[in-house]
UniProtKB/TrEMBL annotation, chain B:
Subcellular location: Secreted
Stretches assigned to coiled coil: none
Protein name per UniProt: R-spondin 1
Lineage: Eukaryota, Metazoa, Chordata, Craniata, Vertebrata
Full-length numbering of the shown residues: 37 to 146 of 306
Family: Belongs to the R-spondin family.
Origin: domain of life: Eukaryota
Length: 495, 110
């Protein structure tokens, strides 16, 4: 993407020749602007100066020009025509309503063009013609409702396109047809309601596609055909009612998100052909069940987020050997079978909070060697099967009023952070006798309990995104945090 | 040190934390200043960050990709650090197997 060493040396030879012939000064810096030397070239920052016109005496060796946050309302044709070395032009945050043909004439080396946060109503196609080296084009946060056919013609190097936060009511399929090198595009925050078949058919290099925060209700069954390289598809915050079976065309998909839609069910063979899928997020829909063969279709899945749905029963996740995180909180799950989570040797975090679990099979968690975080907050449990939980470091059981038994600390030796239903249950982990009164604590007490764990009062550790901050190896001496913490008014003895 | 002033894109300025609400369409970047966070309003996010737009707010979020200078979203890089090669939004010390660069760019293609 960036200029490599070969192109740089050729450009420098051009520069030296140009300097001699034109005798131009590299050092011309328009008044009130801030200029920095970039080798033989110059970076010019004229942002936020209240300018109403482009500075006249710009050096021909300007490689970077920032005119953001000014009051430019018009770009005259040829205004920048002598800036042959310009690579980045920033015009964000002005009041441009129209950009005439020829405005960018002469910018043969332009790579980055920022036009976001202006008042454009249509893509200024005439002005964009022949920008052959343009790689990044920002048109986000305008009022664009029209993307004329051919407006992107000639942009053969374009890799990244921002059209989010505009007024598009449909996918500009015709115009996009010219962008076979495009790798990342966002059409988020528009008013698109339907995606027709073959809308992205020429975008064979596209890797990332954001369509979130639109009003998409229906998808053509072949609307994603042609996206042979797509890895990330974001359909969050739309009005989808049916599961988008069009994703079957996406054989390289790694990350799929369509939370906050109205999808009620997932068809049995929904993920056929998606062996590459790593992350799937379908939260906030109204899904009541999952395909029984979900893991046969998704053998490489690593993260599954199905929180905030209406799932009542779970299939067996056998076959998802690579799955590391399952979020099922805020559903209506009532029971777990012995084989529900059988054989998930990579599973590290399981979140079943806010369900209706009343009975657990004794073997529910028996074959999860990597499990370190288990959240069963606010269910209806009266008993916790501890078989297989010896590696657990974080356990949350608050809100299970019927669970009044003591937990066997010897079966949970690595626990460091706990939220339990009652204070007395913490005593097995936080040695309450030494805490009968903070004033007469034994001074030579070194603050360790019987398991060599340093005691502490809980300020509950937040369950941040697990994949980002796993403690691979528990520290040799770690703080045990347990809540509700026992004390004078919450004695260790169960009243 | 008196309360920090706010840039002209700010809609609501706080006494000790800079801007807490930017004008529409601008991105808010939270800069750390000692123990304080100072809000700054920008038309585009600085290097190492990308701009995420949502219906309620626009924020600058850190790129999470190794060896990346500028990114499109959390896991797609648009500009790798000097001397590194890029392929499908990732940065490499050399082109992955089966790929090579074309006409002097730093991009690896089939």
């Amino acid at each position: 993407l960036d200029t490599s060493t070969h192109t740089d040396s050729r450009r420098l030879r051009d520069l030296e020749g140009l300097t001699e012939t034109m005798g131009a000064q590299v050092g011309d810096c328009p008044s009130r602007c801030h200029c920095e030397e970039d080798g033989m070239l110059q970076r010019v920052d004229c942002s936020d100066l209240g300018l109403t016109d482009i500075p006249a005496n710009l050096s021909v060796f300007t490689s970077y020009l920032d005119l953001s946050m000014n009051n430019l309302t018009l770009l005259s044709s040829g205004a920048l025509s002598n800036l042959h070395f310009l690579e980045e032009l920033r015009l964000a945050g002005n009041d441009l309503t129209h950009i005439p043909k020829g405005a960018f004439y002469g910018l043969f080396n332009l790579k980055v063009l920022m036009l976001q946060n202006n008042q454009l109503r249509r893509v200024p196609g005439e002005a964009l013609q022949n920008l052959r080296n343009l790689q990044s084009l920002r048109l986000d946060a305008n009022h664009i409702s029209s993307v004329p056919r051919g407006c992107f013609d000639g942009l053969q190097s374009l890799r990244h396109l921002w059209l989010d936060d505009n007024s598009l009511t449909e996918v500009p399929a015709d115009a996009l047809g010219a962008l076979s090198s495009l790798q990342a595009m966002t059409l988020a925050l528009n008013r698109i309601t339907h995606i027709p078949d073959r809308a992205f058919t020429n975008l064979s290099s596209l890797v990332v596609l954001h369509l979130n925060n639109n009003r998409i209700r229906t998808l053509g069954t072949q609307c994603f055909d042609g996206l042979h390289s797509l890895e990330t598809l974001d359909l969050n915050y739309n009005n989808l009612e049916e599961f988008p079976i069009a994703i079957r065309a996406l054989s390289t998909l790694k990350e799929l998100g369509f939370h906050s839609n109205n999808i009620k069910s997932i068809p049995e063979q929904a993920f056929t052909g998606h062996s590459t899928l790593l992350t799937m997020t379908i939260t906030g829909a109204r899904i009541t069940s999952l395909p029984t063969t979900v893991c046969d279709q998704l053998p490489n899945l690593q993260v599954l987020d199905l929180s905030y749905n209406m799932i009542q029963a779970l299939p067996s996740f056998r076959g998802c050997e690579k799955i590391q995180k399952i979020d099922l909180h805020h559903n209506e799950i009532e029971e777990l079978q012995a084989d529900t989570f059988q054989g998930l040797t990579s599973l590290r975090s399981l979140d079943l909070a806010w369900n209706k679990l009343s009975s657990l099979n004794p073997l529910s968690f028996s074959s999860l060697p990597a499990l370190i975080k288990l959240d069963l907050t606010s269910n209806r449990l009266s008993y916790l099967p501890v078989s297989g939980l010896h590696g657990l470091t974080h356990l949350k059981l608050a809100g299970n009023e019927d669970l009044q038994e003591l937990l066997p600390a010897e079966s949970l030796p690595k626990l460091r952070v706990m939220e339990l239903p009652y204070a007395f249950q913490c005593c097995a982990f936080v040695s309450c006798e030494k805490h009968s009164s903070p004033w007469d604590r034994d001074n030579n007490h070194n603050g360790k309990d019987d398991f060599g764990r340093r005691e502490g009062i809980l300020n509950s550790d937040s369950f941040s995104d697990l994949l980002l901050d796993f403690d691979d190896e528990p520290k040799s001496h770690h703080t045990v945090q347990c809540s509700p913490s026992p004390g004078p008014f919450r004695p260790c003895h169960h009243l | 040190e008196g309360p920090p002033s706010c840039s002209n894109g700010c809609e609501r300025c706080s006494e000790y934390n800079g801007c807490i609400k930017c004008k529409p369409k601008l991105f808010i970047l939270l800069e750390r200043n000692d123990i304080r966070q100072i809000g700054v309003c920008l038309a585009s996010c600085p290097q190492g960050y990308f701009g995420m737009r949502t219906p309620d707010t626009n924020r600058c979020i850190q790129c999470k990709i190794e060896n990346c200078e500028e990114c499109f979203n959390r896991n797609f890089c648009t500009k790798c650090k000097e001397g590194l090669y890029s392929h499908r939004g990732r940065c490499y010390p050399s082109c992955p197997e089966g790929l090579s660069t074309t006409n002097g760019t730093m991009e690896c293609v089939e």
